[in-house]
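Justification of computing resources. Each target in the renewal requires a structure prediction run like the one illustrated here; the chain below, 218 residues long, is used simply to show the kind of job we budget for.
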Amino acid sequence: MFIGIDLSSSPKKPTACVGLDEGLRLFWFDLLLSDADILDAIVSHRPGIVAIDSPIGLPQGLCCLEEGCSCQPLTPAKGRACERELSHRGIPSYYTTKRSIIKNMVYRAIVLKREIDALGCQVIEVYPYATKVNLFGKPIPSKLEPAGIAFLRERLCGLMPHNAPQISGFNHDLCDALLAAFTAFLYRRGEVEILGHPEEGAICIPKTPLLDTSPPSG
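Resulting structure tokens:
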């Protein structure tokens, strides 16, 4: 089984979690707050792979993301290798630097990965926007707009039509968590590219072209 986590920056904000089985059927989804709630769900479902939508490592040479710390990246290039590779492909992302606006989420993800590892589950890093680009092509409408949510639901129903009744009620966070779980499924099948260095967190994205995910006509 595969669990996708669209991690929030704080336990005060819900984190969307979605579980898929090997037949791509939804067996669970929820909005959870604390790390303890997330870990309890993982213990309960015992997935083989957990996919987290967040950086789960720091650029080589950094021990933290605090500007007052003397640690420095080993390379003058911005962010991690995986983020630079995404940029080269025309896929924007947040760079993991000491000025990152998602610093709190990165710290949370690193701790969560360590705790999930201790449970015996494999953890991979994913980036749902890159997954959308590789699966659906550009342009990708904003997920914050009604048209963007409709686009996501339609494409996800095209991928997993048997889950359409549940997907039709998903918000954008649950859609991203579902994309994370689907990427974990592809990872298991060897149908992803792994960008970057494992030492600082590599991102898994679907290989392209993969399949037709357009909604059915009529």
